[in-house]
Amino acid sequence: MAFFFQNLVNALQWGSFYALIALGYSMVYGVLMLFNFAHGDIFMVGAYIGFGVASGLVALTSTGAVALPNWSILMLTIIVSMFLTAFVGMIVERIGYRPLRDAPRASAAITGLMIGIILETGNLALLGARRVRFPSLIESTTYNIGGVFVTNKKIMIVVVSLLLMFALNQFVRRTKWGMAMRAMAFDYVVVPLMGVSTNTIAALTFALGSALAAAAGILFGLAYPVLDPYMGIVFGWKAFVAAILGGRGSILGATLAGFLLGFIEIFVAMIFPSTLRDLIAYSIILLILTFKPHGFFGEPYSARLRL
Amino acid sequence: MKQLKENIRSSFSRVPLLGWLFGALIAVWLEHLAGDPLAAALGLPKIPVLFGCVIMLKKPVLIPAAVIYVLLIYALPVAAVARLSASFANRLAARMLNLPIFFSVAIHLGLLYAVLHMWSEMSAYRVITLKLTLIAVMLTLSLNIINGYMGEFSCSHPGFMALGAYAASAFTVALFVEDKLFGQALLPSALGPFMFPLALIAGGMVAALGALAIAIPSFRTRGDYLAIISLAFMFIVKSMIENLEVVGGPRGLSSQPDWANLPTVFGWTVACVWIINNFVRSTLGKALNAVRDEETAANAMTVDTRRTKIIAFLFAAFWAGVAGGLFAHVLRYVNPATFGIQKLAEVLAMVYFGGLNSVYGSIVGAVSLSLLGEALRPLEILKWLIIPLLLILVMIFRPTGLVAFKEFNVKNLVKPRQRRKE
Description:
Strand order of the largest sheet of chain A: 1-4
CATH class of chain A: Mainly Alpha
CATH architecture of the largest domain in chain B: Orthogonal Bundle
Radius of gyration of chain B: 23 Å
Number of domains of chain B: 2
Low-confidence stretches of chain B: none
CATH architecture of chain A: Orthogonal Bundle
Order of helices and strands of chain B: HHHHHHHHHHEHHHHEHHHH
Helix content of chain B: over 70%
Helix content of chain A: over 70%
CATH topology of chain A: ABC transporter involved in vitamin B12 uptake, BtuC
Oligomer: heterodimer
Largest interface: A-B, 48 and 41 residues
Largest sheet of chain A: 2 strands, antiparallel
Number of helices of chain B: 18
Distance between the termini of chain B: 17 Å
């Protein structure tokens, strides 16, 4: 039983990365009906920006210029990188998606894919092919709760991601901006006529998604401190599938699907040989989608909304 | 200056395709005769393999020499022969046009093959580049059926390719090659080259069968459903092959027989272009366009939309499988990691770069991106900045690709040209 709970804890941590990334996909898909294939690489950029900010702050502290405890460095890193990555997301939208507002949707997906490649290659060209090590900002302490080993990092990762998801939910539900986003998701044609700027809302959507991806990147860096330029590919595509599984534009759906994917992957690796992980995970997703084609919380929609 | 340009354009406007082929033939023949001495005289280490692009990027000092080489061997002879033979070629083309169209097309294809064969004979690198380019044409064209003519977004092409590659390889390796995975050869290997088409067709069939698994659930609803299902399918196929120890698992499958020579690949590519071009201009192809543009209206006009979509999807998957089989036999080694996201990005880029809903576009996209990828190889990492940037620019300024929505009319292509009226 302890073994099961141990895996449950691991799955919660693993699922929170997926859920945070999936939210970015889901929002862009919900509001603009577009696939943002660059999102996985924005996650990677977020992790690297977090790495840069964190190492900068650590170096600053070690020279004695400012005295910052480690937890405040972590907080600062998360906040600063979320802002910076939000700008990256807005730039991606400006270059890759805004000129293609009236083009076929697939063309925008292709520019997203290409921007992703540019981000990977740009990173490789700037920093070289070596992997970088994320500074360990918090001391790892392990608690033993009835045979289940839980580290403080794991707790922090899950709590921070849940907090962020809750904050996003509040933002979308309670603010005027959030209302504009929901309205845009509801009807793409009429909402601009009501005085809501499509460009502003699109940029906001990308910025929010990218900020969450940056948070996911930093939390990932804390748990698995080795970063490489292609880390966004695998995560990105899996989170993309999770986002669709959750239903178009549904925050709760994307979160649940992200956690579900994490659970499936960890538990498959627990029972079967781990090489079967992708096979079984995707087969389950395929099966779910066969019976619920619009995901958990997606409503049937017409693709003609925006074509 | 403008007058000169106009003059040149008008005097070349009456060169038919046949004339250009004559010119190209003379140019590659010239390269055979004088390529090596000329390269030595110009100080080039060897003949520039890809029109001098690679050598120019590698050693900028050699740019003038490479440009002179390309001018002397390719540009000038092609232009001169094409212009001089224009009237003769026109008369010949007009004569052939009176015969059945098949005859004229066969002559053109024969000439094209001769040009490609002589050009690639000069180095092994050219042969492999040419073969891979032709395979890319097949892949792009088959994906264009789904993404262009049908207007859906499918991500499963690497999966179909993998199915075709593995099925065809298993067929040939198990039957004709002594191998540690499959044991003794079951049939004499002399029989092999005749059975090779069967192996490719088997590969295509397996891919089509796999496509059926996507098609049945996903064409009940419209929208972005297919994109996700096909993406999941691609990962499933890759992961499945990695777990199948029978075909080598993640280590891959090697020792395919060397039967995919240039004539075979060229022949299959021509067959693919011909059949797909006929398919998209048939009633079924028009129905496919109707489904893309307005499914409800198409349904009202007696088009069985689901059947049409499934047939087109399986058809595209079949050709992707054939291309995969050829790919495996050209490289003579496959491993599952080849058929991943990177391959998908490559094929999608070719389709959208060349142009949707157009056979021309697919040929243009596949050939230009394959050759560009090879030509920019010396730039190493920068190559992957330049090609995506180029594609983004194309998407911004021509969102449906370079030559989209253009019908591939063979008769127009081979007919004699009139001098343009001023």
